[in-house]
Amino acid sequence: MLKVRVVKRRDGFMLDANFEAPTPGVVALFGRSGCGKTTTINIISGLLAADEARIELDGEALEDTPPERRRIGYVFQDGRLFPHMSVLRNLRYGMTRAANAVQRDHASPTGHQRIELEAIVSLLGLERLLQRRPNQLSGGERQRVSLGRALLSQPRLLLLDEPLAALDAARRDEVLPYLERLRDHLSIPMVYVSHQFDEVLRLATHVVLMDAGRVLAQGALNEVSLVPALRDIVGADSVGAVLDGMVTAVDAAGSMADLRVGTGVLSVGVRGVGVGERVRVQLLARDIILAVEAPRGLSVRNELRGVVVALVDDAEDAVLVTVDVGGASVLSRVTRTAVAALGLTPGTGVWVLVKAVSTRGHAFRVGRTATGG
Amino acid sequence: MPRGRSPGCAGTDAPACAGPNAPGRGHPAAARVGARGAPCLRYIGACTPVIIRATVRPAVKLKPTPRTVTMHLSPAELDALRLSLEVAARSVLFSLPLAVVVAWLLTRGRFAGRWLLDALVHLPLVLPPVAIGYVLLLLFGNHGPIGGWLHHHFGIQLAFTTAGAALATAVMAFPLMVRAIRLSLENVDPGLEAAARTLGAKPLDRFVTITLPLMLPGLIAGAVTAFAAGLGEFGAVITFAANVPGVTRTIPLALYTAIQSPGGDDQALRLAILSFALGLIGLLLAEILARRARSLVGR
Fold this sequence. Notes:
Chain A is 25% helix and 34% strand. With 373 residues, chain A is of the alpha+beta class. Chain A has 2 domains: 2-219, Rossmann fold (3-Layer(aba) Sandwich), CATH 3.40.50.300; 240-367, CATH 2.40.50.100. In chain A, a hairpin with a 2-residue loop joins strand 12 and strand 13. Chain B has helices at residues 28-35, 39-56, 75-108, 114-126, 129-140, 145-154, 162-186, 190-198, 203-231, 235-240, 251-260, 265-296. The model of chain B is unreliable at 1-59 (pLDDT under 50). Classes of the chains: A alpha+beta (373), B mainly alpha (299). Chain A binds chain B through residues 45, 47, 67-74, 76, 78, 80, 82-84, 93-94, 97-98, 101, 133-135, 149-150, 153, and chain B through 189, 191-192, 194-202, 205, 209-210, 213-214, 216, 296-299.
């Protein structure tokens, strides 16, 4: 378990954040720029002094340990590779110091397996970069080296400060799969700072939603995705419930998969997954149709039975309807007139209709075994 | 006091200044400085006839007819060259570590007297070099508070010695060096040091493995500039270390001496050409080294 409580006042800005997250796993600190996410992880790392700090990792208090002895890895937004060293020397920088610290303290076994250079080089695809200088690397390569360097310092916690923010879309897509591999292959807890919801969707097992220095909501992504305040941060078009499900079947072309979600089955557009794997999908509220009678003769592939649990005003003319579909929740944005015409109130039984093709690009594999959630 | 009219012991025939039998220690002026409380007045007094003579006879004679000068250096000129290089090198070696520390304090330090340190370091840029030499004489002379202590405990004498010339040179070139190093230190991203910190590097480790290598271009620029400036330091050297052939008579002092002595024109010209050549080589070397260093730190 990672428990964090930080307070810091700084000319007109007040950070007062308090969150807990299961370990190992990826905690996403999500919120707009300037909401205190980076300040929070800087305090966790010890690089920034706080007015009040309480950082507890798996029962051990870290706030009084100097940063160089905290064994908390940090991947900076700008990489911060040492320009006067080759990639290999950058990778070894933290590694040798971690090894020396273990020798000196005679304390070793941390319970974790030692992360080896060869393993990281192959996991991050760095084989051909080792002799290069940082100024000979692309932005994406630089971030991969930076990730490797932090991991080789044998951290017990890894902090990532918007590691993809400085990259263009193509470079982002190049680095994201590596981050997913780290999450799936290493058991190091991570705190991932981002203001991009799709990164959170792909990587996080736990989300802390922040705004103006405070924590608005925290929990599994499925729960946080239902929080109304999220709308102001991600924008109305990106609002939608996130569901995790086990793949029960894959179609012949390998582009569609059936997920067991709650008590129903959802067909989603996702490539490269196998039966038994976990897939996460965001069903955008604007794409969800509600029906009060059993629909017939529609092209829609997904019909889930559910019960309306809540209605929240979303905009002047729209309402956000939360529907329970047997252990999982779905959000749908419908017009006020539709709510009146269908007579939707909490307790109304509905059919939730989801076009399978609308989920393409919003569904991702999140691992082989059940983690977090 | 104008820089050109320093109380130099011009002319090789000036008996008060040239002490060939016992360079440095046996220097009559030095002895007198050592014996009395107000040393420099005596010292200047000893040189007064020379100054008067220098004023009467124009220092530089403009000859309308062109003449040729062979660049064959006499033993005395070679001595001056060797001394210039030695004094400049020793001054750089001595002041470089100190300059790094001071540059660090001025850039990263947070303490009350920072402005005072900043001003003190830059003082040699605005003061007459002779004044600096005089202050050094007061402090580091054999009866000065620091010089006396050094002499008593370690037998070290600085005034009127090569080491003293190096000290005077170091003080004069110090602001140049600190400026160059400070500039490069300001260009070192503190974020890289923070990154090293998260990777387990302690303060000294961070400084040696990250900060210092990244400062290298500025360090080299500072060292070479100080060295080049040190080759030509005149006022402070002649005041603090006098003009002793083979001990403190560096190229500029030898040049000044040659100008002051009858028939020294050829020698003066040779030494001037030598100064030009040294300066040019120094600047080229600085450029080459700086380029190497920049590529080394990946800029």
